[in-house]
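[Discussion] Sanity-checking designs against the backbone

I'm trying to build intuition for which residues belong where. Below is a structure token string of 80 positions. I'd appreciate it if someone posts a full sequence so I can compare it with mine line by line.
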């Protein structure tokens, strides 16, 4: 499958996730990730979710992002 490249805004948000303190949740960052990724198709969201899951250390913030992206994928699959 040919994946299109991530937009600069999505890349910037993911860089902030990787660079930020990951021992606590950052609601503003979660909101920004959600706003940027909800425009993408399900396959792209799943790709980003897997990149976050396997490239960041397991911590509360990463777990929150993965759960949020799982929910976003579910909502898109339900076509709500």
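Best answer:
Here's mine. Compare freely.
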């Amino acid at each position: 499958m040919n994946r299109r490249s991530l937009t600069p805004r999505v890349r910037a948000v993911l860089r902030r996730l990787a660079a930020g303190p990951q021992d606590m949740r950052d609601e503003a960052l979660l909101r920004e990730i959600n706003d940027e990724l909800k425009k993408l198709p399900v396959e792209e969201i799943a790709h980003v979710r897997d990149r976050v899951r396997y490239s960041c250390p397991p911590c509360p913030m990463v777990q929150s992002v993965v759960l949020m992206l799982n929910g976003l994928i579910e909502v898109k699959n339900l076509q709500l």
